[in-house]
Amino acid sequence: MIIALNNKSNLSKDEFIKYQQNLSNINSSNKMILCPTFLNINNFNLTNFSLGAQNVSMNNDGAYTGEISANSLKSYNVEYTIVGHSERRIYQKESLEEINEKIKKLLENNIIPILCVGETKEERKNNKTEEKIKEEITSAIEGLSDSDKDKLIIAYEPIWSIGTGIIPSNSEIEEVFKYIKTFLPNNKILYGGSANEENIELLNQCKIIDGYLLGGISLKPEKLKVFISKLEK
User: Fold this and answer.
1) Separation of alpha carbons 96 and 18, rounded Å
2) Is 55 left (phi over 0), alpha (psi -120 to 50) or beta?
3) Alpha helices (runs of H) in 24-144, residue ranges in sequence order
């Protein structure tokens, strides 16, 4: 299992230092990844978590004000990077082509991309979930070798579930995961979207899930400990 924590745009420097102290006490047999803000990457000092980032530039080092290259992330020992999160697709208008370029830059620097895919409530209602998933995956892996494709981690995050407290049924999750496997049969697939300590026992019944990308609960170490303990039962 993989447990990836997405801090999003949260935690000041002092808050992050205190937060890390709480995370340092979490023990798990699962692979744990922490994706802090860019400013907190340099403050990362955990030994029980691997370091991830929340985004990367589609460009190499150069005259790109405000951007952070994959090469720079690598120099800080970043091992994983979230790509194509729905919030960036929506708020920053990230295109499919940009996401593809970001994935290529990460792989060139031996950083594993965590590619987020997922449908809106309207798309699910109109039976367009598979169409959306296909578009996001096929565009993301365009131009990649088979060996590079196998390095990706996929995070299925139904957009209508993120932050709402509402999760798909296990059968709906299994249906999407099996569809993703038709494109990427060898890849780990995480579930994200309102997964927490209260619904993990239900989600745990869905054996096809390879791990979780956690948002809100990632900021609450005590609840995270409960989540992990229930996950590992």
Assistant:
1) 37
2) beta
3) 38-41, 70-75, 86-91, 96-108, 121-125, 129-140
How far apart are alpha carbons 41 and 200 in whole angstroms? 28
Strand-pair partners of 82:
114
Q: How far, in Å, are 65, 75, 158 from residue 193 at the CA level? A: 32, 31, 6
Close Cβ partners of 90 (under 8 Å, ≥ 6 residues apart): none
Rounded CA-CA distance 145/116 in Å is 20
pTM of the prediction?
0.97
Angstrom distance (rounded) from CA 128 to CA 101: 25
DSSP-derived secondary structure letter, 183: T
Which pLDDT band holds residue 104 (cuts at 50, 70, 90)?
very high
How many of the other CB atoms lie within 10 Å of CB of 132?
17
Residues designated catalytic: 85, 157
Q: Would you state the structure tokens that stand for residue 10, as one six-digit string?
A: 């949260």
**Residue 129, burial from CB neighbour count under 10 angstroms (0-12, 13-18, 19+):** buried
Q: What is the pLDDT of residues 157-214, one digit of tens each?
A: 999 998 888 999 999 999 999 999 999 999 999 999 999 999 999 999 999 999 999 9
Please return the burial class of 10, using the count of CB atoms within 10 Å of its CB with bins 0-12, 13-18 and 19+. Answer: middle
pLDDT at position 233: 84
pLDDT tier at 223, thresholds 50, 70, 90? very high
Work out the average pLDDT over 107-126: 97
Residue-wise over 36-64: b if at least 16 C-beta within 10 A, else e? bbeebbeebeeeebbbbbbbbbbeeeeee
